[in-house]
Amino acid sequence: MRTLITGGAGFVGSHLCDRFLKEGHEVIALDNFITGNRDNIAHLLDNPKFRVIVHDISNPIEIPDLLDNILHFASPASPVDYLDHPIPTMKVGALGSHNSLGLAKRHKARYLFASTSEIYGDPHVHPQTESYWGNVNTIGPRGVYDEAKRFGEAMTMAYHREHKVDTHIIRIFNTYGERMQLNDGRVVPNFMYQALRGEPMTLYGDGSQTRSFCHVSDLVEGIYRLLFKDYHEPVNLGNPNEVTIKQFAEEIRSLAGSKSEIVYKPLPQDDPKQRKPDITRAKTILGWEPVIGREEGLKRTMAYFQERMKRTGKL
Ligand code: NAD
Ligand code: UDP
After folding, report:
1. Which parts of the sequence belong to the NAD(P)-binding domain (predicted)?
2. Whose C-alpha lies nearest to ligand 2, atom 23?
3. Active-site residue flag, 145
4. What end-to-end distance do the CA atoms of the chain give, in Å?
5. Which of 31, 262, 269, 271 is placed for a possible disulfide with 9 were both Cys, Cβ 3.0 to 4.6 Å?
6. What's 2-175+214-237's CATH class?
7. Where are the domains of the chain?
8. Which residues, 6 or more positions from 177, have their beta carbon under 8 angstroms from its beta carbon?
């Protein structure tokens, strides 16, 4: 099988490249490196079954080799990144989804769209089930990401209904792990960088907002299982173990053996107050649930950041 992964040089995308290669697929990583990093795929460059196409998927592309699977993961994903690149974010969610769906139609390939828990916005239903339609501020700063992903879901369903493409939609909840960018502004790299260096840890708001953190290896397993199922409605993938961001800061500080102080900074606009996936659907359809607990996942991630920071003189 030949599998195309847009955003293949990103954090999640590069782990998907590893997994599909391990399963014996030929893998093409398509990326324009707007937030991705060549280091993430450096270990794959000598693999004859792996290749990279440098391209912005918001522009159409023709790929002559027959594709069996297309996973559309290209998009800035960190709030800092998508606020830095609002228009490319809207374009890749809209035009990039259209172009990658067009490829799937032409190649008769299975398709999987990486949607997000952000389509639930600042949710009024807790935990979030797939049947909840969400509470998004369309014109707020986060709207560029949320609405692009909502459009991407709608487009994916339209291609399924109209063109009978074998589509799949996952709604990914906060996922962390090795190969996140140290400076992408998300809470895990920020807290780890600060704690390891003994610098103040920046807690936004009063820290009572919640998130539920999933290790990337669990996410990848769920994606692999869904791609081959005859199921086309959205599926939440995430770890339902919810934590306040204040407690999370304390956990990371203690894992790092750090004496960093916690400093309070303003809460970004429209920052969701609570987020936790209801994963009943994933359990039922995929027989999937996360197996890496937060402590284990954070230890692995911290070891990665420590090594990287040492290598680049930051520690
Ligand atoms: P990331 O920034 O590490 O990876 C995104 C990749 O997409 C990067 O390599 C980037 O260069 C590439 N890219 C962006 N725009 C592109 C374009 N127009 N053409 C080609 N390549 C492009 O982020 P990530 O955390 O790995 O996220 C991957 C996907 O998963 C994204 O679609 C994101 O929305 C989704 N997601 C991630 C999370 C999470 O917690 N990590 C949560 C919800 C959804
Ligand atoms: N956050 C924080 N300090 C930071 C970075 C993030 O307190 O240095 C908070 C942020 O306000 C949010 C949560 O951590 O409530 C998760 O933020 P992230 O950017 O990782 O992802 P989000 O879930 O908001 O998309």
Report:
1. 4-301
2. 174
3. yes
4. 42
5. 31
6. alpha beta
7. 2-175+214-237, 177-211+241-275+292-311
8. 11, 15, 215, 216, 217, 297, 300, 301, 304
